Amino acid sequence: MERKKFKTEVTELLHLIIHSLYSHKEIFLRELISNASDALDKLKYLTLTDEALKTLSFTPKIDITFIDGDQKTLTVSDNGIGMDHDGLAEDLGTIARSGTRNFLNNLTEDQKKDSNLIGQFGVGFYSSFMVADKVEVISKRAGSDQAWKWSSDGKGSFTLEEAERESQGTTVLLYLNEEGAEYANRWTLERLVKRYSDHIAFPIFLAYDQDDYDDKGKKKGTTHKVEQINSAAALWRRSKSELKPEDYNEFYKSSTYDTDDPLYYIHTQAEGANNYTTLFFIPAKAPFDLYHADYKPGVKLYVKRVYITDDEKELLPTYLRFVRGVIDSEDLPLNVSREILQQNKFMTNIRNASVKKILGELKKVAEQNPDLYTKIVEQFNRPLKEGLYSDYGNKDTLVSLVRFKSSETDGYTSLAAYKERMKEDQKTIYYLAGGDEETIRRSPLLDGYKKKGLEVLLMTDDIDDIVVPSIGTFEELPLKAINKSGAVDDLDKDESKKKAKEGKSVLKKIKKALDKRVKDVVASTRLVDAPAVVVVDDNDPSVQMQQMLKAMGQADLPEITPILEINLDSPIVKKIDDSEDEDFISDMAQVLLDQALLNEGVMLKHPAEFVKRLNSLLSR
Ligand code: ADP
């Protein structure tokens, strides 16, 4: 017998499970059944594709037994793929998914107490230790003739030894503790399986002893019974008309780690040139790994009801990675490889049709159920925006789906709603991107637009700077970023010309003082209180964007200089205009630029210089 230590992250996870998920301890059964079902899926697939296993005949099933004695026990058994010595040591000694590990590391103390969050990434097998003092796993890998027993009390280590098992598969044996005692009970088990695992595609049998009584109500013995306790039908293949919303919700929860009902589901049964079924869900909350590069795709692929993979990112475009669900094709071969999948015309058709369907349904929700759509937007607006520049074919629909904050209204608004509210002579959709909502709402640029009664869309997502320009125009109206040079004289061309003339000498003075730090210095028609603001050339990234790119390690970015827009009515600017003192003008000009940058949330390159100049000005 060998003894091995758990990897530290397992010990941490175990600690977290026992302390956070406590109120949800019954989910351990769902997790074990889901593992058993995965193991059956995997073996079924191999018997169809792997030469060595083609002759193996097996009837996939899951068995649950229990003993309600002094030591209460519970077993969950499957005849699936099984694990060999190394599999047991690896799979039940580490946390396989790197995303999960990162996720764990990044949790705050508060988040660790949020059992929904923890439940979301799937605590899997280890949740058994909430209800058991000791867990044994006896497993035999399909194709191998040696079985192994893994055993642990969940306190830092496990043992491995040779064992006996007739055929391939895995048995998980729980020595129930006080907390788990209630699960050595027929009715409790039946209820839990119905709630969480009814749609598992394989039959789940429960074995129990039933007391027999004679006519007078006296016990005369017991009969051993075995009964199937789930309906074991692939829900997505059942007719839509016989399914109720609750059925969909339960299916969603039993096939994902989510404990909340989904916001929406989309069930499509297509017949004709392509025969397939898809069932998609929009979760209530964004998956924890939505913005991780190694996110887990949410859609499972089946071929003729046989599970193929849950790890294929190409099933839907990346921007729809928050969608959960199932694609089941009648037309694909069972032994599809990843390469075939990516080129297969049936697959391409299903994918294209699925995207159209999902976006179309979202559009319907947006039009018919705005409250529900707001919930969707709160979670998934940003990924949908990614679609604007990655899915050109569906651009029009996507443009109608994305939402923005606004200078004039609370909550989210669409471009169409903005257009409705536009002033009659307005020919441009104005927006401001770069930085968080706080910073944007305080931008001095907004003052001039507010004064003129013009609404400005506020773009608060980090990708807006990139994706919004790709919209170009909306119903023939150009979108203009008000912090770019193209919008500078757009508000009032005559006024702009007048100001440029009026400010000629002071603009020249400031430009000379700032020299290479700016591309240009221009007179503003938009500033009300603030003395100056920075904008950038139409084709340059905003100052926040530049800062972000630098933070991401793009240090070799060419230095991009801003344009300084000056408020000629500001007393500070007047002081510069009146002065002939070169040092004073220089200090004033530099401080003017630096404070405008600070206002945009930009970190100054030489804060000490700024402080020195400020002090010199203050001491005058
Ligand atoms: P997850 O199921 O999310 O991968 P688990 O901790 O539940 O995480 O399981 C870890 C791994 O152990 C699984 O990915 C699988 O490889 C293996 N495993 C667990 N239960 C079984 C089983 N009944 N049969 C075969 N392999 C299993």
Plain-language structure description:
The protein is α+β, with helices and mostly antiparallel strands. 38% of the residues lie in helices and 20% in strands. β4 and β5 form a beta hairpin. α2 packs across α7, α10 runs parallel beside α12 and α11 packs across α12. The longest helix has 24 residues. The chain is elongated and about 110 Å long.
Throw out a few tags for this protein.
single chain; 620 residues; alpha+beta; Heat Shock Protein 90; Ribosomal Protein S5, domain 2; Four Helix Bundle (Hemerythrin (Met), subunit A); 3 domains; five-stranded mixed β-sheet; elongated; binds adenosine-5'-diphosphate
